[in-house]
Amino acid sequence: AQSVTQLDSQVPVFEEAPVELRCNYSSSVSVYLFWYVQYPNQGLQLLLKYLSGSTLVKGINGFEAEFNKSQTSFHLRKPSVHISDTAEYFCAVSGQGSSNTGKLIFGQGTTLQVKP
Amino acid sequence: EAGVTQSPTHLIKTRGQQATLRCSPISGHTSVYWYQQALGLGLQFLLWYDEGEERNRGNFPPRFSGRQFPNYSSELNVNALELEDSALYLCASSRDRARYSDTQYFGPGTRLTVL
Q1: How far apart are CA B57 and CA A83, in angstroms?
Q2: Fewer beta carbons under 10 A from the terminal one: N or C of chain B?
Q3: Domains in chain A, ordered, with CATH?
Q4: Domain total in chain B
Q5: In chain A, whose CA is at the least distance from the CA of B94?
Q6: What's the half-sphere exposure (Cβ side, CA atoms, 13 Å) at B52?
Q7: Of B42, B101, B106, which has the smallest distance from its Cβ to A94's Cβ?
Q8: Closest to B103 (Cβ–Cβ): which among A46, A103, A105?
Q9: Which residues of A touch B58 (CB under 8 A)?
Q10: By three-state DSSP, how is residue A62 classified?
Q11: Does residue B99 or residue A105 have the better pLDDT?
Q12: Please, are residues B66 and B49 in contact by the beta-carbon 8 Å criterion?
């Protein structure tokens, strides 16, 4: 069965500090991984995705993530955060197999709180 | 290019009523997905439509149903509303259902409140 675990429900950080949001996945097949961001009262916006190739993926707004197959992780990082990065972040895996076809399987989300 | 649009933005219903939510995908996208984001339950997959057919559904009762129209827009219907149906309903679209790697693009959501 496929699943995603986001290890921190909330991450407080000061402005201009680096941040890492952790995501672990479980899958018996090759995976496609995504990070989405949800600003208050809005839908989800794609930050970045890993499909294949280079394990370091760069996304929008200065975010990047590293795919680690041996540790089944896909952690999101940003070297210097801004107040405007305050939002909820979701890690997701693309469902595979007959029962999971078409769906994204999401983690529970991590709330990033950037303080001045 | 216009993104995924959803209507209405907010919907208030009473228990037992029916709710209809609408979604228009990005131009050129044929697949539409529905997700429920309820407080404390995270994002749960509801339904997937492609080329007018329901291709998969999540673990929801049959009173959650929908359809996809020839122009690829979609409608989600929730019958016999219950208080726990209160949630943000998100619609997403993608270009090619044949690829697991295809990115889903999300709309702003419809906030359904059941009183």
Answers
A1: 38
A2: N
A3: 1-7+17-31+45-80 (2.60.40.10)
A4: 1
A5: A102
A6: 3
A7: B101
A8: A46
A9: 103
A10: helix
A11: A105
A12: yes
pLDDT at A104 over 60: yes
User: What is the tens place of the pLDDT at every residue in A31-83?
Assistant: 889 999 999 888 999 999 998 888 899 999 999 999 999 999 999 999 999 99
Residue A29, pLDDT > 90, answer no
Q: Which residues from B are below 8 Å from A100, CB to CB?
A: 56
Among B31, B45, B109, the residue with its CB nearest the CB of A43 is B109
Beta strand B10-13 pairing with B110-114: parallel
Is residue A101 within 8 A of residue A2, CB to CB? The reply is no
A89 part of contact set with chain B, CB < 8 Å = no
Residue A62 has φ and ψ, to the nearest 5°, of 80, 5
Give the domain range for residue B72.
5-96+106-114
Residue B101 covered by a domain: no
Question: Which residues of chain B, if any, have pLDDT below 70?
Answer: 1, 97-100
What mean pLDDT is predicted for residues A24-31?
Answer: 83
pLDDT for res A102? 80
Interface test with B, best of A36, A44, A89, A106 (most B CBs within 10 A): A44
Q: Residue B44 has what pLDDT?
A: 94
Region of B90 please: left (phi>0), alpha (psi -120 to 50) or beta: beta
Q: What is the CATH number of the domain that holds B22?
A: 2.60.40.10
Judge: B105–A46 Cβ closer than 8 Å, yes or no. yes
Domain assignment of residue B63, yes or no: yes
